[in-house]
Specification:
Strand content: 15-25%
Strand order of the largest sheet: 1-3-2-4-5-9-6
Structural class: alpha/beta
Oligomer: single chain
Number of helices: 10
Number of strands: 9
Order of helices and strands: EHHEHEHEHEHHEEHHHEE
Helix content: 25-40%
Distance between the termini: 27 Å
């Protein structure tokens, strides 16, 4: 395994994180909450697409919006060569810790630079993933540009995986996210229950078309959000960045209080919090 991790700002997308939202630099504590609490909720999405594509030895994978690297780690465990780019340096620091621990071979590279710096030296990529970014209308232009650039680093016919939320009626977290929308002033671009819900019926296909990619199948995956207690649920959801716009105009105590109130119907008798969700993925191909 020869992982490459690169800090990469998506064009025309502001300060954008791998979950598709805009906000100031994230604190290290919030980054740890993402890595230790929230990121694992999407493991079923990662594994389902890796199974479908047969990711393993011979796979040269580029992760757009790789965050703290869990999806890359799972691919590397299957024998894939992985590279990752993200706009958030604090999340990349954790990805480096996961993917380049002491004792790794000398040929392991962790670089800093543009998207091209992530390209494998011996052969182009044959899988590109964008699990997290789809969802905010204002990021479409930047995502399109980055996907087009990534496709240029991949073999013809390579798989490009786009991920997003499923139908709003099948995502229990939708009601909780309305807190972020209501508290933001002006309202956040992240709109629940309209065409802004990540993702709309054809959002992934539209994005693939914009980037010059050819759709080649899709699927849905159950990704329930489960937390040990209410405090963990609040910390995990705040770590996504989707509440940052609200935190800019309201006190953190107020945001946490209203978030906990929205989560209350999902808390079980034993104190755990459980929200069933469905995520959707699209597999497209480079031309």
């Amino acid at each position: 395994m020869s992982p490459t991790l690169v800090r990469h700002q998506l064009p025309h997308s502001g300060s954008m994180r791998c979950d598709g939202s805009h906000a100031p630099a994230r604190s290290r504590e919030r980054t740890r909450d993402w890595a230790e609490i929230q990121e694992r909720m999407l493991v079923p999405l990662y594994e389902a697409t890796y199974d479908r594509l047969g990711v393993g030895p011979g796979t040269r994978l580029l992760g757009l919006g790789c965050g703290s690297g869990l999806a890359l780690l799972l691919a590397a465990a299957r024998g894939a060569q992985v590279s990752g780019v993200d706009a958030d340096e604090t999340r990349l620091e954790l990805a480096r810790e996961r993917l380049t621990p002491d004792g790794m071979p000398e040929h392991t590279r962790v670089v800093s630079g543009g998207l091209e710096a992530a390209a494998p030296g011996d052969a182009p990529f044959n899988v590109v993933t964008a699990f997290h970014p789809v969802g905010c209308v204002s990021t479409v232009e930047g995502l399109t540009t980055s996907l087009t650039a990534a496709a240029g680093l991949a073999e013809r016919g390579s798989a490009v995986v786009l991920g997003g939320w499923g139908p709003v009626e099948r995502c229990a977290t939708a009601g909780v996210l309305r807190v972020a929308q209501r508290l933001a002033d002006p309202p956040s671009d992240y709109v629940v229950g309209s065409s802004g819900w990540p993702s709309g019926r054809d959002d992934l296909e539209d994005l693939a078309d914009r980037a010059g990619l050819r759709p080649d199948g899709s699927g849905r995956v159950a990704c329930p959000f489960g937390y040990a207690d209410m405090a963990s649920a609040v910390r995990g959801l705040l770590s996504t960045g989707l509440f940052d716009a609200a935190l800019e105009v309201a006190e953190q105590r107020q945001v946490e209080k209203e978030l906990a109130e929205a989560l209350h119907p999902h808390q079980r008798a034993d104190g755990t919090v459980w929200m069933p969700n469905v995520f959707r993925y699209l597999i497209a191909r480079t031309r």
